């Protein structure tokens, strides 16, 4: 990993680092430094197993293992790991976790090139407005990883391996194969970075976790038209609660009003004025 990134960014943590939020009886969001992972599965019904969504920052495997053991007990690996997308802060611990857990990994087929060593993401775009994190973003790792035969494409029928009540929703824009997860019966949404609940471009707000609805992190988003349609698609589901990749979970009328505002005013709220992928 690039030493300049390690020196400038990895030591940073948010005030939520190491904290968890119970979103439903079987949905637990856990903050690792500046990003959220999600543990889905009822600890009182271990026979049904559990699933990990996303794999956090580089170097976070032990924190993730401890969180899993506190919730499900020792020697209880997940049935699967689902990746919303392959950016470094969502797959940072995946290779170390797979050394501990012999489990399959699933992602959208359009994301597989970045997870099998074929493609790299574009580097972070410091030209987007927003703050110091945007300015630092060219230092962030943008290379793909190679999970080989451990990673599989999600089923085309929208089902989620290990989570029979959930469906995956293709929500591109931030990356080509970005997905979100949705459960119809209680309308719980795991949104990844399709939208977030913190202004991720601002270092101050990342550290303080000041909650506000925002579009996908600007410095890594490559298709703003697709990102807008993805937010509108998720808003149309009328989620009751949302776990996002960054920021604290949001629910109820606050989520309904905030997500509606984002969908209606996406260009003004989410799209930067300048950037490599901004087209006038």
UniProtKB/TrEMBL annotation:
Domain called Metallo-beta-lactamase: residue spans: 34-246
Stored Pfam families: Lactamase_B (PF00753)
Transmembrane residue ranges: none
Coiled-coil ranges from the UniProt annotation: none
SMART domains attached to this UniProt entry: Lactamase_B
Catalytic activity: 3',5'-cyclic CMP + H2O = CMP + H(+); 3',5'-cyclic UMP + H2O = UMP + H(+)
Cross-referenced InterPro entries: Metallo-B-lactamas, NDM-1-like, RibonucZ/Hydroxyglut_hydro
PANTHER family, per database record: METALLO-BETA-LACTAMASE DOMAIN-CONTAINING, METALLO-BETA-LACTAMASE DOMAIN-CONTAINING PROTEIN
Annotated function: Counteracts the endogenous Pycsar antiviral defense system. Phosphodiesterase that enables metal-dependent hydrolysis of host cyclic nucleotide Pycsar defense signals such as cCMP and cUMP.
Protein name, entry field: MBL fold metallo-hydrolase
